[in-house]
Specification:
Layout (H helix, E strand, L loop, with lengths): L4 H14 L9 E8 L5 H18 L2 E2 L2 E10 L3 H14 L4 E3 L4 H11 L6 E3 L7 H4 L6 E2 L5 H4 L3 H7 L5 E7 L2 H17 L2 E8 L7 H6 L6 E5 L2 H13 L6 E3 L6 H4 L13 E4 L8 H13 L11 H19 L5 H13 L2 E3 L2 E5 L5 E14 L2 E13 L7 H7 L14
Parallel strand pairs: 1-3, 1-4, 4-5, 5-6, 7-8, 7-9, 9-10
Antiparallel strand pairs: 2-3, 11-14, 12-13, 13-14, 14-15
Helix pairs in contact: 2-13, 3-4, 7-8, 13-14
Length: 419
């Protein structure tokens, strides 16, 4: 289900402007980057739906400027993200980049953005903490919370409500895996929990036999920080191995991209607690409208039953761009000065709650603690347990104390009581 039609649809909208002589200067060139290759392809495809939905609602025209879209396909690696962004910036000459999707890609684009001051970069949905917390870029904006913010509240919930006191973890061995686990671990360990073992797997792992064999059987639950093809492969092999432990889901482990996978393996996730930027069955009117708009935009066989967090994130990022451009009547003069000032002040009434930016141009928003439920017809979804508003990047503690925790890594954070 690849949506390359977006390229042609967007280009056709802009074509009339491009042939209109002087009017061609008014065309807005936007670069879209997402993982349309590799283990996260299914995530990238839904991010494209979110981007396209926002652009369709705007009519591919923002503040009187027709929009031409240039697509850069990545595979979740920093190298692929740099190749893609160089193509859309240095060859296609885009004004604005929306993307990327994956954590380490975001760090790479942050650094690249510093070499391209004439372009404004709006993150797609990548969630590595250091992208905006460490040496941020003046022309890089992120309207989604990072992976640690997405972990907020989950550790406390599983310790105090589920009764899980000891946990082993399996997560993907890269920046987002570290960041997402950090958010969970800070809560869990501060509540009194113990992480007995941390197992790391490369992105794109096919064979999980050795990892499954190494899982301890003397813990209360297993935390799974996997996504896309990795998550589905693990679940299939875990079910075949007779696995029956209590599970805790990292944010992308229980996203619609996994819950909509084929086969029975996903059923082991029923009842699994997790947390992240949305809850599928939330009864909020704004969320329900977004779900319906998403469903109406594509035939059922060409989308998920409900938008994944990837679609939501790119939808929000694109709408932030639209809102800021409309505020300045499409003015990108003087190095995008007015546009960037407007972006800093954007308040998004997003489908998944109110979003604002901090001084590092990083989102402050709502986090959702959820559990996976069976909604019938072979479909799984996430049910809201608790919504936490105004989650900032230091998770409500002082910047000084947060700095003591350290940059997320295989061993960071230390499992201890932090506050």
């Amino acid at each position: 289900m690849k949506f390359w039609a977006l390229t042609f649809a967007a280009t056709s909208v802009a074509a009339g402007v491009l042939t209109a002589g002087a009017a061609s200067a008014e065309t807005l060139k936007v670069g879209f980057l997402a993982t349309l290759e590799g283990t996260y392809t299914i995530l990238g495809e839904d991010s494209q739906r979110g981007f396209e939905l926002a652009m369709k609602q705007a009519g591919y025209n923002i503040a009187g400027r027709d929009v031409e879209v240039f697509i850069g396909a990545t595979d979740a690696s920093p190298e692929s993200a740099l190749r893609a962004v160089r193509k859309v910036v240095e060859q296609d000459g885009v004004d604005i980049v929306i993307g990327p999707l994956s954590g380490s890609e975001g760090i790479a684009l942050r650094d690249y953005s510093k070499t391209q001051p004439q372009v404004t970069f709006i993150n797609g949905i990548s969630g590595a903490q250091e992208t905006t917390l460490v040496d941020p870029s003046e022309n890089f904006f992120r309207f989604n919370m990072d992976g640690a913010q997405w972990g907020m509240g989950l550790g406390d919930y599983v310790y105090n409500e589920k009764g899980y006191k000891t946990v082993a973890t399996v997560a993907e061995d890269y920046s987002f895996g570290y960041t997402n686990l950090l958010g969970f671990a800070l809560d869990f360990c501060t509540a009194g929990g113990e992480i007995t073992e941390r197992l790391w797997v490369p992105l794109g792992t096919k064979d999980f036999a050795s990892i499954i064999a190494a899982l301890p059987d003397d813990v209360d639950a297993i935390y799974l920080g996997l996504g896309g093809g990795d998550a589905v492969n693990f679940l299939n092999q875990y079910l075949q191995a007779g696995g029956d432990a209590n599970l805790i889901g990292g944010t992308i482990m229980v996203d619609g991209t996994v819950l909509s996978s084929k086969g029975r393996a996903k059923e082991v996730l029923i009842g699994t607690p997790s947390s992240g930027p949305q809850a599928d069955t939330w009864d909020d009117a704004n969320w329900q409208k977004f779900v319906k708009d998403y469903q109406d935009a594509w035939a059922p066989e060409d989308r998920f039953p409900s938008p994944s967090l990837l679609a939501t994130g790119y939808f929000n990022s694109t709408n932030a761009m639209i809102q800021a451009l409309e505020a300045v009547n499409g003015d990108l003069s003087d190095g995008h000065e007015a546009f960037r000032a407007a972006l800093k002040e954007v308040v998004l009434d997003a489908p998944n709650g109110r979003i604002t930016l901090d001084d590092n141009r990083q989102a402050i928003g709502s986090n959702f603690v959820t559990e996976v439920i069976d909604i019938g017809g072979g479909e799984l979804a996430t049910r809201l347990v608790k919504k936490i508003d105004n989650v900032n990047q230091t998770l409500g503690i002082s910047a000084e104390m947060f700095a003591e925790i350290g940059t997320p890594s295989r061993e960071t954070p230390e499992c201890k009581k932090w506050w």
